[in-house]
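Bug: token stream looks shifted between consecutive jobs. Job 1:
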Amino acid sequence: MNDKNIPFQTIDWSLVPKTEHKGTHGVAYWQTLQFDGLRIRIVEYSPGYLADHWCQKGHIVHCLEGEVVNEQEDGARSILVPGMSYVVSDDLSSHRSTTKTGVKLLIIDGDFLRLKA
């Protein structure tokens, strides 16, 4: 079996431990499943959260609850509310998240988002 194959499974997120990651302001709580070349997370940002770095990693981000502003280093901004998503490949954006009210996101990233030459 290829070690990148993922067998069918359900995920009970209530059983996945949370880890704390401080932002410039506020805190993020991550629940993470890591597979070979694939990471799946539920991420919650506290009210007033501002990421402590500009990220160049590719993601698929889906808003489950709340509202998040996605800032790009070039000044562009977009807002996600429940039911909205964004997608970007690695190295195509320098972005960070901020939220006034708090937000809960499903974030998927991995090798499949590497920039193709």
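Job 2, same session, no restart:
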Amino acid sequence: MIQGGIIAAVYAALTLITPIFSYGVGQVRISEALCVLPFFTPAAIPGLFVGCALANLGSPFGMADIICGSIASLLAAYATSKVKNKWLAPLPSVLLNGLIVGLMLSTQIPGQAWWAAILYVAGGQAIACYALGMPLLFALDKFRGKLFGETRRKEE
């Protein structure tokens, strides 16, 4: 529970201190680097869900973003926990956030094409999850036992 709480707090803080990057179609949330954490520990699943819900309290898209963004994070975190290949760990977040948040934003922004919103959100997710998340994953992998216990099997 402590790990989940820390993850939630860090996710929310990283999102809220960088609002210019955190909301809208062109978002690249620095906090999304944390999407790799379910690869190591199941505590990250509720942590990312709660962190996203808290962060989206500051969203200009209100309840739609709180609900859809949090559900997207929950589903992506769960899917990430099932991934066996570390290079694919960020992919659920890229695909699910792109689809769910992109569709939500296309309903909230007048004239926004759904397909473009999906592509933009997925692109921002790819930048955050791969450019920031993969280095985080490799750095944490060196200390996996000390940080997370042996909750995840050793990888190839």
